[in-house]
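note to self: the first set is below, dont mix up w the second
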Amino acid sequence: MDNEKSSDTVRSATMLMLSCNEAELLLDEYLDDELSELDRRRFERHLETCDECAALVRDCRHIVETAKLLVDRPVPPAVSQRLRARLQEELGVTVAAPKPSLSLVE
């Protein structure tokens, strides 16, 4: 009976372990803090045992933090016009010109 109980515990623990593929599928939700408590614990348990996935999470967090530092700059009108013309020419996609900014402060 103890053997049976032990094998159930091992089976339950194995079911809770994530593979690298499963962890990769949950990565975005993990980074956005959108996982359920159980999935978050499973994901973090996987990171404790998988250096490759832990490095991927660190890299993704670094990219997100770096992207937050980027300055949002408007696209120059000439570049915007060339891009719209090229999309129309190559893909047949019509892109409306951006609406003028209503901001009083630039």
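second set (the one i keep forgetting abt)
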Amino acid sequence: MMIKEFIQAFSLVFLAEMGDKSQLLAITFATRYPLKKVLMGMLAGALLNDGLAVLLGRLVSGFVPMKTIQMIAGFAFLLFAFWSLRVEEGGETENSSQKIQLGPVLTVATAYFIGEFGDKTQLTAIALASDADAPLAILAGTVSGMIGAGGIGIFIGKKLGDKIPEMALKLASAAIFLFFGISKLMQGVPKKYWTVWNGLLAGIILTIALTESVRRLIRAQKQGRESALIRKSRELYDYYHQIGRDFDRICPGTGKCGKCQGDHCIVGSTKTLIQSCLSGKPPAYRDPSGINKST
């Protein structure tokens, strides 16, 4: 049961955050701070945010009937499915990340906590924890999902830039929320309401609403409206590729130097130092005896 609840929480949050606020924050901060510090800040912010959500979910389960909780969770997950398909303009993320300046880890953690407070990820954690047998598994799953989505977002942004498959991510997120939403409703709604006509009516309403949501996304895409995810992914892609081009310009090449000496020359050692700083790893230096050591 614990593994099942962990996987459920992880999959819901991971797909929900693909292209959402926390992933945008991760990509934004990856252009300012080393990846290690960004991930540490994400972990701290997610633990605090989702920890409060799990605690609230357990408190709610103490005085609200389980069937009622399952119905509320089911409708909430359906709402989150449409939330995943909304057309975003994206300004809130940039504003929140620019206003907070507390040092890398604290800045990222604070931005995550504020940005995700009351968001669908926290509400998902509340809904899952309210009827969970292992609330710590829910906490571990939601936190892992957020960290995983942020890390994947940074990796994809570096590699693909504005070619990130945003539409596919949104559709996958909506699909999994729909699946879990319908599952919760089937558990919580009394059997007497599960008639053919009620099922047909619900199916028609969902189909119309989903079709309209997807149509809006496609229209926005055709109009060339750029989402915050696409913009931030391109900025991250340009940032790291510009560094690579600068490295290539600095190095005169084997035509002038002969055989490449790697980090034995001043240019090579400078490249190694900068790459170490970008990755958050301790830089290496070469002592007079020629042996690499970590600081």
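remember for set 2: The chain has two domains: 2-235, 254-294.
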